[in-house]
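Private note to self, pasted from the team thread so I don't lose it. Backbone tokens:
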């Protein structure tokens, strides 16, 4: 596994309106109930389309529940040629615990 960089919640908060793509890999039901603003849901059904349709130079941060599974998926993005990929440290739960962050 490649050495995946981590981004913390406060760093992500400052990047929300940037060119960065926030990829949420949690179960779709949980994503639909609440998610980080401007995030997109990716799973096995749309992963290949996302890869095909997304510029490889756009930065990506992968979000899971606790920041563990996202490291593996971040590696998949790196293996597919994406240049800048992060895993959100602590995952969605860390985002949600930060009272300054919004959920949608």
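Design output:
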């Amino acid at each position: 596994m490649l050495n995946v960089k981590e981004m913390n919640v406060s760093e992500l908060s400052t990047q929300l309106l940037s060119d960065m793509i926030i990829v949420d890999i949690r179960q779709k039901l949980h994503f639909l109930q609440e998610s980080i603003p401007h995030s997109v849901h990716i799973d096995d059904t749309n992963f290949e389309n996302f890869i095909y349709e997304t510029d490889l130079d756009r930065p990506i941060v992968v979000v899971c529940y606790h920041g563990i599974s996202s490291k593996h998926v971040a590696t998949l993005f790196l293996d597919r040629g994406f240049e800048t990929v992060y895993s959100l440290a602590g995952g969605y739960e860390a985002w949600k615990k930060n009272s300054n962050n919004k959920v949608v």
